[in-house]
Design goal:
The complex is a heterodimer of chains A (about 80) and B (about 170). With about 80 residues, chain A is mainly β. Helices cover about 10% and strands about 40% of the residues of chain A. In chain B, helix 1 crosses helix 2. The chains are: A mainly beta (about 80), B alpha+beta (about 170). Chains A and B meet through strand 1, strand 2, strand 5 and helix 1 of A and helix 3, helix 4, strand 4 and strand 5 of B.
């Protein structure tokens, strides 16, 4: 999102990202059958965070497995994926 | 006599020169490490050369060295029905109190900025907001310094990707 600071004399625009924080399951170790790492919803601490878009490092492809869990697909060719979609 | 055949050239560069520089005692390992060192140094020199000749080089004050200008991230896919934080919360189905709490936390962290946002929740709620669904992030390609890959981070909110069902492709 963009938020415009109209109340300040400088009137700057901040570009921010609203994120949902996901935690690694089993400390980020590889799952035996899928050979991928998995992430899950945060349950006990704040799951949302607002950050500057400059801190977003890149894109990840995650596959929902249900029960608030996702597989992090590290084998995908993101260049081709972005060309198709 | 000079041969352009790969095998002949490799025989000279890889083996003969390596053997000359070895102490002739168990020379095979020394030949291999000699070539490895030469190769690594060559690659390092090539990368330094590329970085020195790269375009968009801007000096950073107090850094003591030059670095390439960081490409910008671009927000795309503007939503038309969002103009305030309250409307943003409604479309994203998020509690207004939670988002305000996060905003205030973010403002506290960035208090040293040139144009800090107001930390008054009432004023903050009145500020004009635009919502975007895509963020394009330029990233350097694998082992490349001047070719960028565009990563497209997309927000689908509670919907599935492209509003479609699961696929097995």
């Amino acid at each position: 999102m963009k938020i415009r600071n109209v109340l300040s004399a400088a009137a700057g625009v901040r570009q921010l990202a609203l994120l949902r924080v996901l935690d690694p399951i089993n400390s980020g170790s590889f799952h035996l059958t899928s050979e991928h790492t998995r992430v899950g919803k945060r349950r006990n601490s704040r799951e949302m965070r607002i950050v500057d878009i400059g801190t977003v490092f890149g894109q990840a492809h995650v596959i929902p497995t249900g029960e608030g869990q996702w597989i992090v697909n590290h084998r995908i060719d993101l260049l081709t994926f972005n060309e198709i979609y | 006599m000079y041969s352009t055949a790969i095998g002949e050239l490799a025989h000279k560069d890889l083996i003969k020169e390596g053997y000359c520089r070895s102490n002739k005692n168990e020379a095979s390992r020394q030949i291999l490490s000699h070539y490895g060192r030469q190769h690594a140094l060559g690659m390092r020199l090539q990368i330094l050369d590329l970085l020195l000749n790269a375009e968009n080089v801007v000096p950073i004050e107090g850094c003591g060295r030059e670095t390439a200008a960081a490409p910008r991230r671009i927000l795309k896919g503007r939503m038309k029905n969002v103009s305030t934080l309250t409307e943003l919360c409604t479309t994203c189905n998020i509690d207004y109190g939670n988002i305000m709490e996060e905003m205030l936390r973010f403002i506290k962290q960035t208090v040293a900025d040139d144009h800090p946002l107001s930390s008054d929740p009432t004023k903050l709620g009145l500020l004009p907001v635009e919502q975007f669904m895509n963020l394009e992030i330029p990233l350097a390609d694998f082992q490349e310094t001047d070719i960028l890959q565009i990563h497209r981070a997309r927000s689908t909110r509670t919907m599935a990707f492209r509003s479609c069902g699961p696929r097995n492709d």
